[in-house]
Amino acid sequence: MHEGGGVITGGAASELLVAGQLCFIPTGWEHEFRVLRHSRLSLIYTDSSTSAPFGLRQVTPLLAGLFARLSDLEEGTEQEAYLTVIGHELVRATPQAAQPALAANLDPRLLRVLERFCQAPSINTTLAELAMDCGASLRTLNRLFLQQLGCTFRQWREQVVMGRARQLQYQGVTSVQIADLLGYEDPATFSRALQRFARRGSAS
C-alpha cells in the first residue's frame, strides 16, 4: 500500500492495511478489499503454488526499493525482471506479529476517520479534530476504536505514522524532512519515537 489504506476481509480473517504495509493474499482465497478514498496500491500476482497464509508481511528495504522503482519502468524485459524478484521476495517475506482482530463490518463513522487520517498522517492529529467531520462524538469514536480495531486511537495513530516514516526512509527521504512531514518537533524527537516503536515491536 503506497498511500491511504484499506480493509481486507475473508472468512474469519481481516486486516487493516495502511501506507507502507504489505499483505499476502493466497491464490483462490475469497475476500473483499474495501479501499479507502485517495489510496494508491500495487497488486502483484505470485506463483499459485505458494501455500503461505493470509496476513501482513514485513517490508524490507529491498522490497520497498523494488516497488518504488517499479512505477517508473515501462513494460518490457526490465519490468519483468523486477516483478520476478518482487515475487520471490514476497514469498520469503516474514509475517508480522498478529494484530488484534477487526470487527466484521467497520462502522462508517470509523471508516471516515481512518480515511481522513491516512490521507495525511501526523503525530499531532487528535481524535477530537477527526470527530468533527465524521458525525460521531469523541466518546463514541474511542469506543469504536477499542471494539472494532482492538486498540486505542493513539496506538493506531502511532502505527500509521511509523509505517509512513519507514516508507519514507526506504525512499531516501531525510530524517529532517520526515520529522517535518509527520509533525514531529525536530529530527531528534522523531528518531527517539522510531526507536521506542521498534523496541516495542521486537519485544512483542
What does this entry show, briefly?
The chain is mainly alpha-helical. The protein has helices spanning about 60-70, 75-90, 110-120, 125-130, 140-150, 155-170, 175-180, 185-204; strands spanning about 5-10, 15-20, 20-25, 30-35, 55.
Topology:
Layout: E1 5-10, E2 13-18, E3 22-24, E4 32-35, E5 55-57, H1 61-70, H2 77-92, H3 108-119, H4 127-131, H5 138-149, H6 153-170, H7 175-181, H8 187-203
Antiparallel strand pairs: 1-2, 1-4, 3-5
Helix pairs in contact: 1-2, 7-8
Structure description:
- The chain contains eight helices and five strands; from the N terminus they run βββββαααααααα.
- The chain is mainly alpha-helical and 204 residues long.
- Helix 1 (61-70) packs antiparallel against helix 2.
CATH class of the largest domain: Mainly Alpha
CATH architecture level-2 label of the largest domain: Orthogonal Bundle
CATH superfamily of the largest domain: Homeodomain-like
Q: Main sheet: which strands, in order across?
A: 2-1-4
Query: What about the largest sheet?
Result: 3 strands, antiparallel
Q: What is the strand tally?
A: 5
Low-confidence stretches: none
**Average pLDDT over all residues:** 84
The DSSP helix count reads 8
Order of helices and strands: EEEEEHHHHHHHH
From the alpha carbons, calculate the radius of gyration and give it in angstroms.
Answer: 17 Å
> Distance between termini?
24 Å
User: Number of folding domains?
Assistant: 2
Shape: globular
From the 3D structure, determine the CATH topology of the largest domain.
Arc Repressor Mutant, subunit A
Computed structural class: mainly alpha
- Helical coverage, percent range: 40-55%
